[in-house]
TrEMBL record:
Keywords: Iron, Iron-sulfur, Metal-binding. This is Anaerobic sulfite reductase subunit A. It comes from the Bacteria. GO terms for molecular function: iron-sulfur cluster binding; metal ion binding. Residues 261-291, 337-368 form the 4Fe-4S ferredoxin-type domain. Gene3D superfamilies: Alpha-helical ferredoxin.
Length: 381
């Protein structure tokens, strides 16, 4: 069988006309394939069945508060950046029933929801998103407080990463050291190559599962020219990223200026709509709700995504802890770029730019940090 002698660490080439073999191999292993597809004017992640479902020939234009699809001049399958969805919606579901209670003759019987974790293959995971998954791994299964639902789904997931060739105007992954090339956290990483009329993919294994999957594909050995071309793709992408976030001393800068007037300037624009937290691949705020039927015979407990921008999220007896928009934006930004470091040893931001693109008024977290740094430095002169 082609590829059966592949060794760990070797790179191979899969031609575009053979890309469907990857789908066949994944389905044969019992995986449900989740990948990018065009829906409702955006590129989103959903279940896909063949390469025909991929956004061939589609790219996107992104700026603060702006997202538009555009037609490319080629038929690249992964020629877009990232859309409004992130992979956390499949690992940390937006709505999850935790248990249900049914009334019987002696009282209520609690029935936990313990479904078997679905075997999902994530196709098209960007390097910044790999880091986001790694961050959520730390949160949900890297401490003594383990989320069993996340843990089960994460262990059952296979990750096929895509090295980034098309950064958006809102990307700043180079500042966060999360891209545009995937270095770890994947089972397979692919780089899409389109030169001289040849459409192909350079594939690299990152795990035993990845090697076993590649051995089932009709691949051919990668040449030195293929490898150099793949390196050039991400090198050129990095060179086109102009948005920057200076991270040196950022934690101390934010936590030392909690009453800085810049917070009010941001709040004057912020709608507290929670878009930034909903599209963020690392935000993990949630709430728990209990519901019951009208006659009292059936009850359910649900966990759903929530946001620190919602007034009720910080409600305790007597009222909300953070009543103003300013305090809620400050909580989000300082957690993402400061106190997250204290909690988990890393920033809670991966530089994907979603919060900038999908903010209705175009608030730019990198610009706000820059403005604060400049005004603080000017005040010390």
């Amino acid at each position: 069988m082609p590829g059966s002698k592949l060794k760990s660490g070797e790179s191979v080439v899969l031609l575009r006309e053979n890309f469907g073999a990857l789908f066949d191999a994944l389905r044969a292993e019992g995986y449900k394939i989740i990948g990018p597809t065009v829906q409702d004017g955006a590129i989103v992640y959903d279940e896909i069945n063949s390469p025909d479902d991929l956004p061939a020939g589609w790219g996107d234009l992104q700026e603060p508060g702006k997202y538009r699809l555009r037609r490319r001049s080629d038929q690249a399958l992964f020629g877009y950046v990232v859309g409004p969805h992130s992979w956390k919606r499949f690992l940390f579901p937006p709505h999850l029933r935790m248990w249900r209670a049914v009334k019987n003759r002696t009282g209520f019987q609690i029935i936990p929801d313990q479904e078997e974790p679905p075997r999902m293959a994530f196709l098209g995971v960007r390097p910044c998103e790999l880091q986001a998954i790694a961050i959520q791994d730390t949160i949900f299964k890297g401490t003594k407080y383990v989320d069993p639902v996340y843990q089960g789904r994460r262990h059952a997931a296979l990750i096929i990463a895509v090295n980034c060739a098309e950064p958006a105007g809102t990307c700043f992954c180079t500042s966060m050291k999360t891209g545009p090339r995937a270095l770890a956290g994947f089972d397979i990483a692919l780089t899409e190559l389109l030169t001289d009329g040849k459409h192909r993919f350079l594939l690299e294994s990152g795990s035993v599962r990845g090697v076993e999957l590649l051995r089932k594909l009709p691949t051919q050995p990668a040449t030195e020219e293929d490898r150099k071309e793949a390196e050039a793709v991400t090198r050129e992408a990095a060179g086109r990223i102009t948005r920057q976030l200076e991270t040196e001393g950022l934690r101390d800068l934010l936590l030392s200026n909690l009453e800085h007037p810049r917070w009010e300037a941001i709040a004057d624009r912020c709608l507290a709509c929670a878009n930034c937290t909903m599209v963020c691949p690392t935000c993990f705020c949630s709430t728990v709700e209990d519901t019951t039927d009208l006659v009292g015979n059936h009850a359910e407990r649900w966990r759903r995504w929530d946001s620190c921008f919602n007034l009720d999220f910080s409600y305790i007896h007597g009222g909300s802890v953070r009543q103003s928009t300013m305090s809620r934006y400050r909580q989000w930004m300082t957690h993402k770029l400061a106190s997250w470091v204290d909690q988990f040893g890393t920033f809670g931001c991966v530089g994907c730019g979603r919060c900038i693109t999908w903010c209705p008024v175009g608030i730019d977290i990198t610009e706000e940090a820059r403005q604060m740094r400049q005004t603080v430095a000017a005040g010390k002169e």
